[in-house]
From TrEMBL:
This is Uncharacterized protein. Residues 1-31 form the signal peptide. Residues 32-53 are annotated as: Disordered. PROSITE patterns: PROKAR_LIPOPROTEIN. It comes from Pseudobutyrivibrio xylanivorans DSM 14809. Keywords: Signal. Residues 37-50 have a biased composition (Acidic residues).
């Protein structure tokens, strides 16, 4: 209503100026009137765009919801390390499938696994996957005065070097890696549970996740208390 009144006032002002000063002044008034209206429209469109942006990003960044600092560092590393490979999205939620964990050396704890970085945009009550990738390998972690710190990661190579590099990195755990990496159904269960626990921890109204070209997958009940193990 306010916007309509402003425009009508401008039109009336333009008519008055025309009566007083003639055609030349009319052209100037009309140009001024048009510029004012266009400015209002531009500001209004900008506000709408800002609102859309804030709404689309109105979900928190992923944080590991379990009690163990060790796994918090691990999950955060995956998101931080691979984010630069993709355009930003509303939230990135990793998939962590740990195959074997070697804690014999506290200065070089080795975590072998099938690790994924996944980006999602929120559409209604569904997280739609917009990008992501697989990064299987071994993450090296050391103990520090503050807790834990990732020192490096050995990543299985793509293409023709995939098999050889996977065997080199996983060694005696290669067969287990093959089983885990080829089991899509089991990985999707882990993925759904990690998303569900994120949703519960942040009290979000999200019911499902969806890959492009696939039906939405309803999230299971959260199980934060039992899903994450306590490190010895």
């Amino acid at each position: 209503m306010c916007r309509v009144r402003k425009i009508l006032a401008l039109v009336m002002a333009g008519a008055l100026v025309t009566g007083l000063f003639g055609c030349g002044a009319s052209e100037q008034a009309t140009a001024s009137q048009t510029e004012t209206i266009e400015t209002e429209a531009s500001e209004e469109a900008s506000e709408e765009a800002d609102n859309i942006t804030s709404e689309s990003a109105n979900i928190p960044a992923y944080e590991y919801p379990g009690p163990e600092l060790f796994y918090s560092v691990l999950y955060k590393y995956i998101n931080d390390e691979f984010a630069a490979n993709y355009d930003s999205a509303d939230v990135a939620i990793p998939i962590v499938n740990i195959i074997y964990q070697d804690e014999s050396n506290k200065e070089d704890i080795k975590v072998y696994g099938d690790f994924w970085y996944m980006n999602y945009d929120l559409e209604g009550d569904t997280l739609e996957c917009v990008s992501g990738g697989s990064y299987p390998g071994c993450i090296h972690i050391k103990t520090t005065d503050e807790g834990y710190s990732v020192t490096s990661m050995d990543i299985v190579e793509d293409g023709s070097n995939y098999l050889d590099s996977a065997k080199e990195i996983f060694g005696e755990h290669f067969d287990d890696f093959e089983k885990v990496s080829s089991d899509d159904e089991a990985r999707e269960k882990v993925r759904a549970q990690i998303i569900s626990n994120y949703v519960f921890a942040n009290d979000l109204n999200i019911k499902a996740y969806q890959d492009q070209g696939w039906d939405p997958v309803t999230l299971p009940e959260q199980n934060i208390d039992s899903f994450y193990s306590i490190l010895d």
